[in-house]
Amino acid sequence: MKYIHSHLWPGVPLALVSAVLFGASAPFAKLLLGTVSPQLLAGLLYLGAGIGLAIVHVSRATFGVPAQEAPLRRHDLPWLAAVVLFGGLAGPLLLMLGLSHTSAASGSLLLNLEGLATMLIAWVVFRENVDRRLILGAFAILVGAVVLSWNGEGVRLDAGAALIAAACLAWGIDNNLTRKLSSSDPVVTATIKGVVAGSVNVALALMLGAAMPSLAMIGAAAVVGFLGVGVSLVLFMLALRHLGAARAGAYFSLAPFIGAVIAVGLLGEPVTVQLVVAGALMGMGLWLHLAERHEHAHLHETMEHEHAHVHDEHHQHHHDGPVTEPHSHWHRHEPLRHTHPHYPDLHHQHGHV
């Protein structure tokens, strides 16, 4: 069977829904901050994500749902350890330390560095393809995020600012390293990250004197964490599989605007000039990215790997007997030269002159 679909599908919708869920979690988490300390809340959100996804994973096996994703293998473990270290432990800890030494206004502005770090690492270190349109689109989205978080106080260049910048760098590294795991089951990866990071942050918060909230508050944080962190992370990993880190990171940078729009209705916050200007800038950046059509003759070298797939133009291998699709198994790609629109996904890691 031949599968034909737009190069925008499914990577772009996955990245946008991931941003919507993460952005929506911010105003809901803000409602909980009155009774829960920031670091404890961060830990509870990650724990909620990890435990919720663990339940999903166990339920799949219990109800006999066939595994369509590739399992984590031994060679994935160093990447998994690095992702947990940078994204689950270092990032949140550096952020909490930074916020305790600088103003909230500076913190909000500096958090926009995560998107910039993700894109720069993808372009400079991992050599993802980039052109003028993509740079302009990413710039518009980032400027929109800065406008949204600006409150006139500016950025205090102090130790707190340096720690928050380091947190954003850690998350930028995390986003790029997570791409190395994007061919494996994202539910399992996100479960491990959530449980480990959540447990460590909760333990640190309690050691520093934070009071454990009521069961109702813990339950609310778990639900917000499951959807806004856990499901969002799973969708982001799937988007990485199809888009690469730079483009997925650019779409994910829309999350602050989404959170601000939801806060208008949820918390009764006013519609400001900043919100309108930020929306216009981010809308322009989104259009520039959606309008991208990277198409040229390219060569697929011989490659062997494992991931969920259907028998499309990139997967023409043989099976002994009937199979259901999508399915996952170790398979070999023979050399192939063709032309079609594409992103720097699992199968398009070629260089450009």
Order of helices and strands: HHHHHHHHHHHHEEEE
Number of helices: 12
**Widest β-sheet, arrangement of strands:** 1-4
Helix vs. strand class: mainly alpha
- What share of residues are in beta strands? 5-15%
The span between the termini is 34 Å
Look at the structure and give the mean pLDDT. 83
Q: Tell me the quaternary state.
A: single chain
Helical proportion?
A: 55-70%
Q: From the alpha-carbon coordinates, what is the Rg to the nearest angstrom? A: 21 Å
SSE inventory with pairings:
Blueprint lengths: L10 H22 L5 H25 L14 H23 L4 H7 L2 H13 L6 H18 L9 H20 L7 H22 L7 H29 L1 H8 L2 H12 L6 H18 L4 E6 L2 E7 L17 E7 L2 E6 L12
Antiparallel strand pairs: 1-4, 2-3
Helix pairs in contact: 1-9, 1-10, 1-11, 2-3, 2-8, 2-9, 3-7, 3-8, 5-7, 5-10, 6-12, 8-9, 9-10
What can you see in these coordinates?
By secondary structure, this protein is mainly alpha-helical. It has twelve helices and four strands. The strands form two sheets. Strands 1-4 form a two-stranded antiparallel sheet. Helix 1 packs across helix 10, helix 2 runs antiparallel to helix 8 and helix 2 packs across helix 9. The longest helix has 29 residues. It starts with 10 loop residues before the first helix and ends in a 12-residue tail after the last strand. The mean pLDDT is 83.
What are the key terms here?
globular, 353 residues, mainly alpha, 12 helices
Short recap of the structure:
This protein has 353 residues and is mainly alpha-helical.
